[in-house]
Amino acid sequence: MKFRVERDALADAVAWTAKSLPNRPSVPVLAGVMLRVADGSLQVSGFDYEVSSQVTVEVQGDADGSALVSGRLLAEITKALPAKPVDIAADGAHLELVCGSARFTLPTMPVEDYPSLPEMPASAGTVDAAAFAAAVAQVAVAAGRDETLPMMTGVRIELVGDTLAMLATDRYRLALREMRWNPEDPDVSINALVPARTLNDTAKTLGPLGGEVTMALAQGGAGEGMIGFAGGTRRTTSRLLDGANYPPVRSLFPASHNAEARVTVSTLVEVVKRVALVAERTTPVLLSFSSDGLIVEAGGTEEARASEGMDATFSGDPLTIGFNPQYLIDGLANLGAPTALLHFVDAFKPAVISPAGEDGEAVPGYRYLIMPIRVTR
């Protein structure tokens, strides 16, 4: 194997592939990235039996072949190379990498020990790449991070006709995003639970490429399905989580509300961040709404306290409600709108945050539910 490739293209391909490699692989070869050259194209691949990543890069190929090298080491090296073409050649049990006056020799691993990448499932349809990336970011923020509850670490994707819905919850908050997509089958009805981290990393990469993302789904037994995403020259597959007993979380959204507030997102985020400086990790910030506006308060140890007022449009009986400050900031920061609409039932029931349009009304498509923290004053 021998080829020449542009430094930036190589660095991007290796960095994306290496990002999903396991920190402690069950077998050494899973820490590697596969470099395979054929017909003037380089395929950079990674696979850990759960997630596979593959990027195709155009190269000047002198000799076809393949090599398996440490993914994280190669990513660090390619990121640090000077902005010049890179010459790579496999020489026995080593890989020679030359860029300008920089030269690296890396040990290779046995190619024959590397598992075959899974095939992409059948295409289910396509969705706009930029819109998909934005939607995933809005939802993935609410997914759990506790690996002892794997179901909560996923994003549930619901494909019904031309509507694509994504939901995620960590039991303290819930995000729901609905959007249009282009199904292969107009009568499609599929649910899948995708690991949130994998979905978020994939969407972040495919979004800026523009165009459309192809979603591919194969349904097996419970938890045995696979999902694939392809955009540009990149493709990734992931095993699905077992979502057979995923709770009916849509029912958590209140059917009606007794109070409504309209606030400027950027201002409220700044105020919450400032006031929360005195709060302990588990201490909520208190939001007191009235016809006069909003007062945000927090208290910490040693009698440290903070409060700040800001403008807000509020209708309903005066209300004081407590929230985890980071959960509140996460919801506000991902609205994608300058104005937020908050709906309340009372101080002890979940509140719902929605983006508001120029007319002040809620923009359909995204809702972020956040559980209040009971406080005594």
TrEMBL record:
Residues annotated as domain DNA polymerase III beta sliding clamp C-terminal: 250-373
Domain of life: Bacteria
GO MF annotations, alphabetized: DNA-directed DNA polymerase activity
Position of the signal peptide: none
SMART domains noted in UniProt: POL3Bc (SM00480)
Residue ranges annotated for the DNA polymerase III beta sliding clamp central domain, each copy included: 127-247
Boundaries of every DNA polymerase III beta sliding clamp N-terminal domain copy: 1-118
Coiled-coil segments: none
Predominant cellular place of this UniProt entry's protein: cytoplasm
Subcellular localization(s) per the UniProt record: Cytoplasm
Keywords, in A-Z order: Cytoplasm, DNA replication, DNA-binding, DNA-directed DNA polymerase, Nucleotidyltransferase, Transferase
Entry similarity comment: Belongs to the beta sliding clamp family.
Role noted for this protein: Confers DNA tethering and processivity to DNA polymerases and other proteins. Acts as a clamp, forming a ring around DNA (a reaction catalyzed by the clamp-loading complex) which diffuses in an ATP-independent manner freely and bidirectionally along dsDNA. Initially characterized for its ability to contact the catalytic subunit of DNA polymerase III (Pol III), a complex, multichain enzyme responsible for most of the replicative synthesis in bacteria; Pol III exhibits 3'-5' exonuclease proofreading activity.
Assembly behavior: Forms a ring-shaped head-to-tail homodimer around DNA.
Record protein name field: Beta sliding clamp
Highest classification ranks of the organism: Bacteria, Bacillati, Actinomycetota, Actinomycetes, Micromonosporales
